[in-house]
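Subgroup meeting minutes
Present: P.N., E.W., G.H.
Scribe: E.W.

1. P.N. recapped why we're keeping a running log of single-chain structure predictions: easier to compare across weeks, and new members can see raw inputs and outputs side by side.
2. G.H. added today's entry (133 aa).
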Amino acid sequence: MRRLAREVAFMKIYESLFISNEDDMNDFFVLEKLDKKEDQEFANELVSLYFAHKDDIDAKISENLKDFSLDRIYKIDRAIIALAVSEYFYYKKTPISVVINESVDIAKKYGTDKSYSFVNGILKSILKEYDGR
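Output recorded in log:
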């Protein structure tokens, strides 16, 4: 299921915000959570795309923050936004509406009461600006 694969990818990105070396991350976590090989591959691809384009993703997020720096964003929200930007710009197979809706749903599940609206607003700002990729 793509939703669960996205959640696992979000968790891996979230984990990376606390670890300075990508090699220290636990790959077993992905295999433990996902039963289907295609879901494992999808989650791993999203995470790999994030790491390959991390600086560009952070720049896109930073450009769309008002009155915040990237380091001040709640890390769960930051990971969700980073996942969405990774999927939209570098996976390129998911429609903008799906990226936003899935991200908002993940924010509702893992974030604060205000996370989903923050994530929605930032993503609409970033993704609509670049709509058409």
